[in-house]
Amino acid sequence: MPPSEPRQRALGKEIRLAPSVMCADLCNLETAIRELEASGMDLLHFDLMDAHFVPNMPIGLALIEQLRPKTDCAFDIHLMVENNDFFVEAVAKIGVQQIAVHVESATHLDRTLAVIQAHGIKAGAALNPATPLSALDYVLARLDFVLIMTVNPGFAGQKLVPATLRKISECRALLENRGVTLPIEVDGNVSFENIPKMVAAGADILVGGTSSVFHTSGLKSENIQRIEQAIEAGLAGRMV
Ligand code: DX5
Ligand code: ZN
Question: Quick one: which of 22, 120, 154, 174 has the fewest CB in 10 Å?
């Protein structure tokens, strides 16, 4: 079974890194996953897209199902689909640890989040860059985490939407004002340069894609080392 608690960081803060599987070598995925596990990764981010909610479909249900028995990593599913309830049931059958649904595609968000939690899976609400935080107002009690998209969803390799840095800190403030302690996951252009700003703003789970974990400038282990340094810089930023 996947580790229950994330690795501890400075300040006792729990910062988790979730490599984005769609950015891995999909033709040698089992090897890629083993390499990530060997580097200490314990949470894998899967972008499940239906080519309708977003115009892309990098990975499918069969791939997630085939990977399940091959790793103890926790599976972090990011649904970018129109039929959330169908895909929630499908991945729950496979065996995953957390699922984020986009508020923009959820007809009955409260009910879908409740169904995820009823499966014993952590439920998250994902927000596109333009979507206001007020979309969370009436579902906070149903949430185990918030996923803030720092790029427009659908494709790897994009540039951060600058306003989303403010959105991360405003989300942290909103949760604190409501007396709610929830991890904030950030997804999109989580780069060596952006990580310190994202962590300082309040991000707890970082989805590592082409701009960090899978950056072509270094080996996985070197990239992860650079990420860890960037996280420490961000945590230091929280102290000021
Ligand atoms: C995009 C996905 C991201 C993406 C991140 O919709 O949600 O997980 O893979 O890739 P980079 O880090 O390249 O933005
Ligand atoms: Zn994602």
Answer: 120
